[in-house]
């Protein structure tokens, strides 16, 4: 397999949990905890998939997604958005901007695995 | 047989009765019960002073001499009254709106208030009227003589001079008494008007009575009378000279407008413009009634009275000769009424002119006091009027004496008419033509008057009396073209028509020509506009209209004084200020004051005031007007001050409302955000708990350290959840006021030490600057709650201070009955618009992620409120700064 994923999440415990689950599934997992330079991190690491939290210190996940979608290299990158805010408008906003998948915290581990694998499959 | 004593007695009783009527009317007017005095009937009857003794007696004489020509004297005024009522109405309106007191005042006022013009008009009026007064005196004395002649027991006085003198003196007394009671000639002479209205009734009834007596008493009915008229050699032939007739009709029509006494009753004594409507048919009707029996009386007189009897006295001598003394006395009273009413009104009119335009200006210039001494001047004016009345009557008497009371007087009526007819061009031109100027009016009047003097007045004394016969026949110094009855060598005209034609024609030509070729002064221009456009200037047909300034007139004046551009700029800016389109603002008090100020820069304050007043008020602006303006200005200023205060207040309220609204809006946004936030705060630990618990459950082969680590994470997150719930509950309890305080004693320094230790985080990351000596204070309060506040503030500083070397200064201060503990860090601080929000619950600054749920400061605020202190943000300290204030008693009590 050897698929790579970048987890952009500021909450260390959640980041660690996702890393553990995906690693065991055979993913190469990298983490990033800051919103400000998240886009640079994506460009540098060129992952196959990005898991993006909405509430990040320094910059909102929505802004980061917008910039990713605007870039030629990252425009078609699969992005799974995670948010602790369960309101419908958050989901609507994420879909409008171009999130590939949107999940509300708390999630089940199996759900996450199913989602990332669905996204990466052609 | 008629007795002269009886006549004198009846006359005295009649005069006494007139006095009583006049007195009663004055009293009624003063008490305000004068409604019936102001009726159109009284107005119309007062107009009948047109029919003087000259008409009463003279019409019959005229008819006996010249047939139907006497009718022209009635036709002229009737035409004017019926056909020219619109012109009369305009004159009356001008008279009222401009407070006109006489013909002279009208003309001088129209032409820029020129006193020189007023003097000229006054002099012409006096010269033209004096012979007429003499004529009235003569008719009274003649009628007395007629009675005396019929009473052989009486020895006739050598001449009639004594009678004339007594009559003149009596009339002077009456006129002074009732004509100068009021100073302002606009305060109408109710007594006089009532008396002359009564006299108008008496003279009409007397003439009708004599006429009826003539036709049915001695004439044998209408048919026979008409037959006798046809048969009469003198009257039967229908001869009509078109030139002379039209000349006379014109003359008598002009006289109605120009005679000072007619102007007095028509304009000055007019109570209501609408009375003219009644007068326009009632006055001609009166004239018809007056002329109805003239022919029958003339025919009867000619046929029944002895040859050589004076036809002018037929009205009196006819009933006398038939032995009807009572009728004769009645007839005498009619003639007496005609004479006296004319003399009284003429004297009032002339005295007003003489005193206003000649005596007063001279007195004022001689006394040197100017018009500032009010009481004195009133007294002087009344004296001047009284002396003028006596003077006018004395002049009339003098004229009567000098002219010898001969038949020459009979023609003087028409000559008098043609004298005052010289006013006509200036008068009509003035009210219908804005281009008429003072120079034109002056030239026309002087030229017309001169021609009148030369062609009509001087020759009227008879050949050789004033003008030598040679001059009349051949012209002065042999200049034939200057012959009084054949100017420019045009002969063959009737002397009267000739004189009227030339005087009025040249008068009009000079007036028109000079008006076209001379420029009016600004004042003339203003007055001209006021006169010609009187209906636009005076809104109401009743009462004196004031403040009807025309912005356009003000503009014209301002342009002349300031220059067109400046004036237009001024008017435009004022119009814009008032919110009016264009150049013409409303002439309100404010604007007038402003305009006056601008104008006074050019022409001086007094002139500017007078000029503005001229347009605004028509008459001079009185002190009351000024006071009113000043008062109004003061009121406006006070009002605007109140408005200003009010609007400040409103502004404050609006600001508070805006603040409240902003706060509400922000709060609502915040509340919305809180739902997300609280969701986030709850879901985040739950996510970790769920994920790791699933890992522990599902993932096989976890190492012990891993298991331990993940179990610890689950534990920590559970604690975090619990803390969040604790905070929420704590806040709910504090907000509901259900908290019970646990008051204990502690030193401030100890509480701070405890808080610093409990705040968590890395103690070395935040450098502390404390004021240990001042922290030795003992406090008696809920020290745990106070520590909770301190913990929050210290934790916040640790979390949010973004300086490279974060530092927190804790300063202690006492004073003003309270203890203040300030927590000041060296970070970026809090934006001004956020400073009030940070204490609201769930508030978070920006969207930066922080440890808490945004309840910390809200809890602090609630705690401090419970401790009867406060927590505030302290702006301008170079970083985030919070001040915790406790009441001093709590601090003192522990020391």
Automatic annotation (TrEMBL), chain A:
Pfam families listed in its UniProt record: Response_reg
| Annotated protein name in UniProt | Response regulator
- State the organism's lineage: Bacteria, Pseudomonadati, Pseudomonadota, Alphaproteobacteria, Rhodobacterales
Sorted keywords for this record are:
DNA-binding, Phosphoprotein, Transcription, Transcription regulation, Two-component regulatory system
* Chain positions with 4-aspartylphosphate modification: 53
Any GO MF annotation of the entry: DNA binding
Q: Which InterPro entries match?
A: Bact_response_regulator, CheY-like_superfamily, Sig_transdc_resp-reg_receiver
Name a single GO biological process. phosphorelay signal transduction system
Q: Which SUPFAM superfamilies match?
A: CheY-like
Supply the Gene3D superfamilies for this chain. 3.40.50.2300
UniProtKB/TrEMBL annotation, chain B:
Q: Keywords, A to Z? A: Coiled coil, Kinase, Membrane, Phosphoprotein, Transferase, Transmembrane, Transmembrane helix, Two-component regulatory system
- What SMART domains does its record include? HATPase_c, HisKA
The record's comment on protein family reads:
Belongs to the sodium:solute symporter (SSF) (TC 2.A.21) family.
The Gene Ontology terms for molecular function here are: phosphorelay sensor kinase activity; transmembrane transporter activity
Q: Which residues form a coiled coil?
A: 629-667
- Which branch of life, at top level? Bacteria
Localization, per the record, is: Membrane
Q: How does it sit in the membrane?
A: Multi-pass membrane protein
Chain ranges passing through the membrane: 6-29, 41-64, 70-88, 116-135, 163-180, 192-218, 245-263, 283-306, 326-359, 380-400, 406-428, 440-461, 496-517
UniProt cross-references to Pfam families, sorted A to Z: HATPase_c, HisKA
Annotated catalysed reactions: ATP + protein L-histidine = ADP + protein N-phospho-L-histidine
**Domain Histidine kinase, first and last residues per copy:** 677-890
Cellular component terms (Gene Ontology): membrane
- Annotated EC: 2.7.13.3
Fetch the Gene3D superfamilies from UniProt. Answer: 1.10.287.130, Histidine kinase-like ATPase, C-terminal domain, Sodium/glucose cotransporter
* EC top class named in words: transferase
Q: What is this protein called?
A: histidine kinase
């Amino acid at each position: 397999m050897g698929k790579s994923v970048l987890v952009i999440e500021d909450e260390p415990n959640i980041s660690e949990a996702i890393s553990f689950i995906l690693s065991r599934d055979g993913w190469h997992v990298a983490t990033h905890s800051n919103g400000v330079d998240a886009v640079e991190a994506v460009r540098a690491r060129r992952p196959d998939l990005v898991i993006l939290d909405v509430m990040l210190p320094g910059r909102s996940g929505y802004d980061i997604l917008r910039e990713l979608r605007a870039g030629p290299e990252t425009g078609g990158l699969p992005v799974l958005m995670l948010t602790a805010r369960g309101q419908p408008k958050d989901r609507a906003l994420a879909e409008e901007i171009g999130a590939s998948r949107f999940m509300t915290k708390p999630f089940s581990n199996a759900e996450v695995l199913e989602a990332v694998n669905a996204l990466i499959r052609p | 047989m008629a007795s002269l004593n009886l006549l004198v007695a009846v006359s005295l009783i009649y005069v006494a009765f007139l006095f009583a009527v006049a007195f009663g009317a004055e009293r009624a007017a003063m008490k305000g019960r004068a409604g019936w005095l102001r009726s159109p009937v009284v107005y119309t009857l007062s107009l009948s002073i047109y029919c003087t003794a000259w008409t009463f007696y003279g019409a019959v004489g005229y008819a006996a001499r010249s047939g139907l020509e006497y009718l022209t004297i009635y036709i002229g005024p009737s035409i004017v009254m019926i056909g020219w009522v619109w012109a009369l109405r305009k004159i009356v309106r001008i008279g009222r709106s401009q407070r006109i007191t006489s013909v002279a005042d009208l003309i001088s006022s129209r032409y820029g208030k020129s006193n020189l013009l007023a003097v000229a008009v006054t002099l012409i009026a006096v010269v033209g009227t004096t012979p007429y007064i003499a004529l009235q005196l003569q008719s009274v004395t003649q009628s007395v003589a007629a009675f005396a002649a019929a009473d052989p027991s009486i020895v006739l006085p050598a001449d009639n001079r004594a009678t004339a003198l007594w009559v003149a003196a009596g009339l002077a007394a009456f006129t002074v008494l009732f004509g100068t009671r009021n100073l302002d000639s606009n305060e109408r002479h109710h007594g006089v008007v009532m008396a002359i209205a009564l006299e108008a009734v008496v003279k009409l009834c007397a003439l009708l009575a004599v006429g009826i007596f003539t036709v049915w008493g001695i004439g044998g009915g209408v048919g026979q009378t008409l037959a006798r008229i046809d048969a009469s050699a003198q009257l039967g032939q229908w001869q009509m000279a078109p030139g002379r007739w039209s000349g006379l009709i014109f003359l008598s029509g002009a006289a109605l407008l120009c005679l000072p006494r007619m102007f007095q009753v028509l304009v000055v004594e007019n109570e209501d413009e609408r009375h003219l409507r009644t007068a326009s048919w009632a006055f001609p009707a009166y004239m018809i009634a007056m002329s109805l029996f003239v022919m029958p009386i003339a025919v009867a007189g000619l046929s029944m009275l002895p040859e050589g009897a004076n036809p002018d006295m037929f009205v009196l001598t006819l009933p006398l000769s038939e032995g009807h003394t009572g009728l004769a006395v009645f007839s005498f009273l009619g003639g007496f009424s005609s004479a006296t009413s004319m003399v009284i009104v003429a004297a009032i009119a002339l005295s007003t002119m003489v005193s206003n335009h000649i005596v007063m200006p001279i007195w004022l210039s001689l006394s040197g006091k100017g018009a500032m001494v009010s009481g004195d001047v009133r007294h002087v004016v009344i004296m001047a009027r009284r002396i003028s009345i006596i003077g006018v009557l004395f002049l009339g008497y003098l004229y009567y004496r000098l002219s010898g009371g001969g038949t020459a007087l009979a023609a003087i009526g028409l000559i008098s008419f043609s004298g005052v007819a010289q006013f006509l061009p200036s008068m009509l031109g003035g009210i219908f033509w804005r281009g008429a100027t003072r120079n034109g009016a002056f030239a026309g009047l002087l030229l017309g008057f001169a021609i009148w003097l030369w062609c009509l007045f001087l020759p009227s004394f008879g050949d050789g009396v004033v003008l030598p016969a040679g001059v009349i026949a051949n012209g002065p110094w042999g200049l034939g073209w200057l012959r009084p009855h054949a100017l420019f060598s045009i002969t063959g005209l009737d002397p009267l028509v000739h004189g009227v034609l030339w005087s009025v024609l040249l008068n009009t030509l000079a007036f028109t020509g000079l008006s076209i070729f001379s420029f009016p002064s600004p004042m003339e221009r203003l007055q001209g506009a006021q006169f010609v456009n009187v209906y636009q200037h005076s809104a109401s047909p009743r009462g004196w209209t004031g403040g009807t300034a025309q912005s356009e007139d003000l503009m014209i004046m301002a342009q002349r004084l300031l220059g067109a551009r400046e004036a237009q700029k001024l008017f435009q800016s004022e119009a814009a200020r008032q919110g009016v389109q264009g150049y013409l603002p409303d002439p309100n008090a404010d604007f007038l004051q402003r305009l006056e100020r601008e104008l006074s820069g050019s022409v001086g304050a007094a002139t500017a005031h007078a000029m503005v007043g001229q347009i605004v008020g028509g008459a001079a602006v009185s002190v009351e007007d000024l006071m009113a303006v000043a008062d109004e200005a003061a009121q406006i200023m006070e009002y605007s001050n109140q408005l200003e205060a009010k609007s400040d207040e409103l502004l404050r309220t609006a600001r508070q409302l805006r603040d409240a609204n902003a706060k509400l809006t922000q709060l609502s946004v915040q509340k919305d955000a809180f739902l997300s936030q609280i969701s986030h705060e709850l879901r985040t630990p739950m996510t970790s708990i769920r994920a790791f618990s699933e890992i522990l459950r599902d993932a096989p082969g976890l190492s012990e350290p891993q298991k331990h680590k993940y179990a610890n994470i689950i534990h920590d997150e559970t604690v975090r959840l619990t803390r969040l719930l604790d905070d929420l509950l704590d806040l709910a309890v504090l907000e509901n006021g259900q908290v019970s305080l646990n008051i204990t004693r502690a030193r401030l320094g100890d509480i701070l030490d405890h808080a610093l230790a409990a705040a968590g985080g890395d103690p070395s990351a935040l450098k502390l600057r404390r004021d240990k000596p001042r922290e030795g204070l003992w406090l008696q309060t809920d020290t745990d709650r106070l520590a909770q506040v301190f913990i929050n503030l210290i934790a916040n500083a640790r979390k949010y201070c973004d300086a490279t070397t974060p530092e927190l200064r804790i300063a202690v201060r006492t004073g003003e009955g309270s203890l203040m503990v300030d927590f000041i860090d060296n970070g970026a601080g809090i934006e001004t618009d956020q400073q009030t929000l940070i204490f609201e619950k769930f508030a978070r600054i920006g969207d930066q992620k922080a440890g808490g749920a945004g309840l910390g400061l809200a809890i602090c605020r609630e705690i401090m409120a419970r401790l009867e202190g406060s927590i505030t943000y302290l702006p301008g300290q170079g970083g985030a700064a919070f001040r915790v204030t406790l009441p001093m008693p709590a601090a003192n009590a522990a020391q």
